[in-house]
Amino acid sequence: MLIREATTEDWPAIWPFFHAIVAAGETFTYPLDLGEENARSWWLLEAPNRTVVAVDGDGTILGTAKMNNNHMGNGSHIASASYMVDPEHSGQGVGRALCEYTLEWARASGFRAMQFNAVVETNVHAVKLYRLLGFEVLGTLPEGFNHPEHGFVGLHIMYCRL
């Protein structure tokens, strides 16, 4: 697996799984009916922030991540990131590789920590992965997310010192 900078030419391969994940309403706080134009501008970030894709040996996009400063001004030393793995390629280490990549990017870019603002507590695979990579749950907003299957569940704020 190779992780490389995403380009606008990658968007047609990202959009189908991006759209399916967002429309499912299980893991992101994005509007369920998020349109393609807004999605592209929200996901494909400009420098100094970054968006990357994980590709296999044939160039198939397996997943994507965006990484950015979490806050501006005097809080701009804290990074954040978001990840989407094509469900057809889940369980193959794509999410872990992307998360490790974003942590290294944040360290190399001089960030002091990485914070995730809204990790849905029922997204147990993501929570487990983040904990394995050094994140801790700082707090949970009770009933902060309306999950389509589980109803109102908590949103974790997760943090990792770099």
From TrEMBL:
Domain of life: Bacteria
SUPFAM superfamilies the record matches: Acyl-CoA N-acyltransferases (Nat) (SSF55729)
Protein name (Swiss-Prot/TrEMBL): N-acetyltransferase
PROSITE patterns: GNAT (PS51186)
Regions that span the bilayer: none
All residue ranges annotated as the N-acetyltransferase domain in the record: 1-162
A Pfam family hit: Acetyltransf_1
InterPro entries per record: Acyl_CoA_acyltransferase, GNAT_dom, Mito_N-acetyltransferase
